[in-house]
């Protein structure tokens, strides 16, 4: 097992820079998730760690050794592909034992390692089948098993669950979490699904346009997003973002208002009068009240039983989503008023960076 | 099969029967000609009153078929495995291991595709002469391997291009060197393509006529198709014997076809699709 260090890692295709200077420290045994929108460079970064893409600039260290010029096969990493990439002409056991066979591990030992991995993944009964005779979930298991048998320093996963249906995805997610607990191995996991990121990660790396936006534990990112992008990306339903102007500001705090928000004092916030800010409020922080700073017309109601997701159209045109109690008596087309606590408020400056004003 | 007949409309069934008749007609007329008395000039499709089955035996003797069969087999064994091996390796290399400048190599091969066989036969003659190989089977085998390369490489490269890159990457991460990936992953997966190519090359080698006739004087070192020349004697062509001989020459390919029917059809379909 080994940790990783990335130092100013860059990747250019032709003239286009798709990874733009990534610095990252991944501790031994950590479960790290790369998350970000499609095309942000997650796979590229992962493949550079695997040794499948050349590193245009910067350094990658695995277990204290710079691996820029080390072949993929010698990096001690195993990867689980989105497409599974199982060898169609080999049985499940042969697929899983292929790496050991190449490493000239004697047959009995190989068989033992394969059986052990099959036991962990509960698929002993599948060992003699070919990939074509397996379901999607079973194939994914085999792909993970193939990684396990090699006992790599680092496990890499590139959206391994995205071809599975929702229920299976949840099962596999829990199994992956259990697997990490059992093996205590360093794992890097790429996904664009922030629920997967939140549930699996020790640490999340949020990427956008080839740049790391924020690194932190799931709750860190949820509670203290450093910019509008992370705020909008982490959390479901998405955080509501409302534009306001600073009316008055003094040492005690500021008073803001906007087309969508009635006047509101924010104690402790240090800004200049006249500045434009973005307020961020999570849907779960909103409450339906008889009188509050957010007034609008209900244009969406989704009753999920344990909660009701309501959409409000505000007078300024913004759309606000609120996750309310399961029995909220709101009705579509009727006016409603929402309120929130100061502790739940996020404030972002004109450049999109978070402005801290509590603690 | 039964189902197919039961559910296919009469019109298409009739059409297929007509097509079958049209395809078989030349063979039937060859058979009827082959059974006419030796030395006569049979007129079209007409069953002779006294079928001269002996013509087959005579054709076999006249053309020295036993030796030719052996010779053809040697030529096929010398040509096809080597050509398939080279093409598989080159196809993999061109599909997977080259980028940028390497593409020029491929263009050279593609250019070879446009070269008509007949255009190179004269230079080839002098080349073989210079090598001192004239009148040996190598005079057929070596040029054939070369002449087959453009198509074969193109064929195998097209196959390897279609293998998902993931598999290759998975093999690398599993610790495979390039040649291990090639032997243990790529070649097993390429078996259908290799099979089709082998069948096509076998057909083309077996039916090779021009090259043996030009480069090999001794008829016993030619391919079977080259044996057809034996029936053009000083006294004109013996049509019944020629037909009987042709049918004998056809026989091995027909037998092979019956054995590898499915692969044959797949191979020919692929040629049709890929051009
Ligand atoms: N071989 C390539 N040549 C040129 N550009 C590439 C190549 N591979 C990737 N890119 C570009 O690099 C960027 C990052 O791609 P990457 O596959 O890493 O995205 P991703 O974050 O994994 O997205 P997704 O969630 O859709 O898988 C994209 O804009 C893509 O167009
Ligand atoms: Mg990707």
From TrEMBL, chain A:
Pfam families: ABC_tran, TOBE_2
Coiled coil start-end: none
Keyword check for ATP-binding: yes
InterPro entries: AAA+_ATPase (IPR003593), ABC_transporter-like_ATP-bd (IPR003439), ABC_transporter-like_CS (IPR017871), ABC_transpr_MalK-like (IPR015855), ABC_transpr_MalK/UgpC-like (IPR047641), Mo/tungstate-bd_C_term_dom (IPR008995), NA-bd_OB-fold (IPR012340), P-loop_NTPase (IPR027417)
Keywords: ATP-binding, Nucleotide-binding, Sugar transport, Transport
One GO MF term attached to the UniProt entry: ATP binding
Ranges of residues in domain ABC transporter: 4-234
GO CC list: ATP-binding cassette (ABC) transporter complex, substrate-binding subunit-containing; maltose transport complex
Family classification: Belongs to the ABC transporter superfamily.
NCBIfam families registered for this protein in UniProt: PRK11650.1
Name by which UniProt lists this protein: Multiple sugar transport system ATP-binding protein
UniProt lineage: Bacteria, Pseudomonadati, Pseudomonadota, Alphaproteobacteria, Rhodobacterales
From TrEMBL, chain B:
PROSITE patterns on file: ABC_TM1
Species whose genome carries this gene: Pseudoroseicyclus aestuarii
TM spans (from-to): 68-92, 104-126, 138-156, 182-206, 239-260
Origin organism lineage: Bacteria, Pseudomonadati, Pseudomonadota, Alphaproteobacteria, Rhodobacterales
Family to which the UniProt record says this protein belongs: Belongs to the binding-protein-dependent transport system permease family.
Keywords assigned: Cell membrane, Membrane, Transmembrane, Transmembrane helix, Transport
Coiled-coil positions: none
Pfam families: BPD_transp_1 (PF00528)
Domain ABC transmembrane type-1: start-end pairs: 69-260
Location of this chain's protein in the cell: Cell membrane
Highest taxon listed in the record's lineage: Bacteria
SUPFAM superfamilies reported in the protein's UniProt record: MetI-like
Name recorded for this polypeptide: Carbohydrate ABC transporter membrane protein 2 (CUT1 family)
GO biological process: transmembrane transport
A GO cellular component annotation in the UniProt record: plasma membrane
Topology with respect to the bilayer: Multi-pass membrane protein
